[in-house]
Write a structure and sequence with these properties.
The protein has 18 helices and 26 strands. The protein has 717 residues and is an alpha/beta fold. The two termini are 18 Å apart.
């Protein structure tokens, strides 16, 4: 099957160039973090830029939380200090990512204009004194935010240090107040046209909820019992759209001032309050903040999933890691540190998976405020520290990776994810609240990561041309477009794996009548009639003849009563309980390589891995057993390695012509890589075997140029 990494998408351009290309061509991989000079005296600024240069920093984000400094009194403007900051950065050859400061208004705005402050679901108006204290529906807030942004953009649109614009910060504010209610009604009028159409969409015949007029509709504030699920879903859609409208206003103001630099904002991975698919076309470059939990041994896989999502949001283009922690965070209940070696591994993992910039929060540790114990590139103890030595080493490494900037990460496996489906699937009043969409996405992704298979995270309904395997962990709202796309993939020879609680409801969150998943039962050759919550401890599931009769494990939390068609194999059955003897997993063969798998339960890691192995082998996207293939598999586009000692634990990804090998095993590894290579990080020549010390990384490029084909074709390593 020919490879199309992503469906056609308008390529973003600034002055006719791809986003960031001019900057990365000049500077290589972007490296730095948030810098908050307003917290320090100017003498410290000069020390900072000197240390930045010595550490290899070439990009810093400034001004994120500077509104009160810019505008100490209503209508006042103090830009002189930022003039000095930007001039200082330019003098030292450091690019600025200049933020609009609108994420944290000055206290006087909330005091003088309480309507700018958000109201929670209980009707409590929040107060200044923290951050994010604004309502995205407040006309007063938006007018003040636009005014400061216009003045900022007019002053700095052409400043030579400003190479990127950063709108707001971590958008995700929710407001249930009266102004939000008014805006919500307008949003509903535009969506539905008539109140009768709204009543139909919301199913208001239930519980006597029928509305006589749009003016009677309120946000889903605290109610005596469960909220109408479609009302809640629409309010989530509305909130995401309101925040996007705030971003668009800022973006337009920057452009109106004549700024030509790329404009972005920072996403937060699988953040629940913003539908990033709907935002993706409005950012010139996708940027993200990532803070995996060091206490979770599976966090490297979960971080890789987020990085694959960022590529998906950008249509496969390079993206920016704008925030991560150098060491410990300060906002979890218990914050484990990140060693310099782990920091390096995590950063280079992001580069391997498409990042053209590696940044941190923050440059210099704050001595006051709520994040005074959050780690920083320059810690409280100063530069003569293990943390800062790790920062300098990473800067040296990234400087050597200039050849990978602008290149892409090919994948032959797609994983479907949708924010609206996530929202709808987790409304209260369902079979079990223990079944969570993101848990399922991670559960299906982790075996793929373990097996060295790079994944594109794709929106349901997008074309799936070129993918040999499509994984649908849990897509509660599976509409006709998504079903059509899956059918086309199967007809094209791909394998499709569908997880539980998929295809349950339509876009209004109404349950689809019939055997589920209604839109694709014929495609799967199996269908369900009952969703079943499982008892604590789960139930046993066993393999069937002739597939894997010795295989056994457990299903927990959720299962489904399935029926397999005559042309469909049953791979696993329930061995006990309410569903004893019934199918747990089915497979329908659709050709020499393709097929459809229906996973009708939340399976333990071993069982789910075995099912995915079956799909992987039939689809030809990677090895059935990790480490079994001694070279890049032509189907997976992932460097599946064998190790000289037969062990596992090396994450391997190809980006462009470079192969990244990351040793996460905790032990020395000798990795078999047939052929002649050069390690970009060390400059060493490598023939057939790469020695990888504990927590080390190699980035290999082939010495023999015949080892690569055209950019659109698989490489023949």
């Amino acid at each position: 099957m020919s490879h199309t990494p992503f469906p056609p998408r308008t390529e973003r351009a600034v002055q006719g160039r791809a986003p960031l290309r001019e900057l990365t061509d000049e500077l290589g991989v972007l490296y730095g973090g948030d810098w908050n000079p307003e917290q320090w005296e100017p003498s410290v600024w000069r020390e900072d830029v000197r240390l930045m240069r010595e550490a290899g920093v070439n990009l810093v984000t400034v001004g994120v939380f500077s509104w009160a400094r810019y505008e100490p009194e209503p209508g006042a403007r103090d830009f002189a200090w930022m003039d000095e900051v930007l001039d200082l950065l330019h003098e030292h050859g450091i690019a600025a990512d200049l933020a609009t400061p609108v994420a944290s208004p000055p206290p006087w705005l909330g005091v003088e204009h309480p309507d700018t402050l958000p109201v929670d679901a209980d009707g409590v108006r929040l107060v200044p004194g923290s951050r994010n204290q604004f309502s995205p529906s407040s006309a007063t807030y938006r007018a003040h935010a636009l005014a400061i942004t216009r003045d900022l953009a007019a002053r700095y649109a052409r400043h030579p240090a400003v190479r990127l614009w950063h709108v707001g910060n971590e958008y995700g504010q929710i407001d249930f107040g009266d102004e939000a209610a008014h805006a919500f009604r307008g949003w509903l009028r535009e969506r539905y046209g008539t109140v009768d159409a709204l009543n139909e969409a919301w199913g208001t015949a239930f519980w006597s909820q029928r509305y006589r007029t749009f003016d009677d509709v309120l946000p889903p504030r605290r109610m005596p019992y469960l909220v109408n699920p479609t009302q809640s879903l629409d309010f989530r859609r509305f909130t995401s759209d309101q925040l996007l409208a705030c971003y668009r206003e800022q973006h337009a103001a920057i452009r109106a001032a004549g700024a030509t630099q790329p404009v972005t904002t920072n996403f937060m991975g699988f953040f629940p309050h913003v539908d990033s698919w709907s935002w993706a076309d409005d950012v010139d470059v996708v940027a993200d903040d990532q803070y995996p939990d060091q206490a979770d041994p599976r966090s490297p896989a979960d971080a890789a999933l987020v990085q694959d999502l960022m590529r998906g949001l950008g249509g496969g283009a390079p993206w920016l890691l704008l925030e991560q922690a150098v060491g410990a965070t300060s906002w979890r209940e218990h914050n484990l540190p990140k060693s310099p070696e782990r920091m390096r591994l995590d950063s280079l993992q992001a580069v391997a998976r498409g990042a053209d910039g590696i940044c941190f929060f923050q440059w210099r540790a704050s001595t006051a405020g709520a994040e005074r114990f959050h780690s920083a590139m320059l810690p409280h103890a100063g530069p003569d520290t293990a943390v800062h030595r790790g920062v300098r080493r990473l800067g040296q490494d990234l400087a050597k990776l200039r050849p990978v900037t602008g290149t892409r990460v090919p994948a032959r496996t797609a994983l479907l994810f949708d924010w609206e489906s996530w929202w709808a699937a987790e409304e209260p009043g369902r079979i079990t609240e223990r079944l969570r969409t993101l848990d399922q996405v991670r559960a299906f992704y982790r075996p793929l990561w373990d097996r060295g298979i790079v994944v594109d995270v794709v929106r349901p309904g997008a074309p799936l041309d070129g993918y040999d395997l499509v994984v649908v962990p849990q897509t509660y709202l599976l509409d006709d477009d998504a079903a059509k796309s899956l059918r086309a993939a199967v007809e094209g020879g791909a394998g499709v794996v569908v997880g539980p609680m998929t295809g349950v409801a339509d876009r209004n969150a109404h349950v689809l009548p019939g055997r589920f998943p209604v839109p694709v039962t014929d495609l799967l050759g199996a269908s369900g009639e009952e969703w079943v919550a499982l008892p604590d401890g789960g139930v046993e599931v066993v393999g069937t003849q002739p597939w894997a009769p010795a295989l056994a494990g457990r299903a927990e939390v959720h299962a489904e009563l399935l029926r397999a068609d005559d042309d469909t194999d049953v791979l696993l059955r329930f061995a006990e309980g309410h569903l004893a003897g019934e199918p747990a997993v089915t497979r329908r063969r659709t050709g020499p390589r393709g097929g459809t798998w229906y996973v009708g339960a939340v399976l333990d890691e071993g069982l789910l891995g075995a099912v995915l192995d079956d799909a992987i082998v039939r689809a030809g996207v990677g090895p059935a057993v990790p480490g079994a293939v001694p070279a890049v598999h032509p189907g997976s586009h992932v460097f599946a390695v064998t190790e000289a000692d037969g062990a596992t634990g090396v994450e391997a990804v190809r980006r462009g012509d470079a192969v990244f090998l990351l040793n996460r095993s905790g032990e020395h590894r000798d990795v078999v890589v047939p052929g002649r290579w050069t390690d970009l990080l060390t400059g060493a020549d490598v023939v057939d075997v790469v020695p990888l010390p504990v927590h080390d990384v190699a980035v290999l490029i082939p010495v023999d140029p015949t080892m690569t084909n055209s950019p659109d074709e698989p490489r023949n390593w």
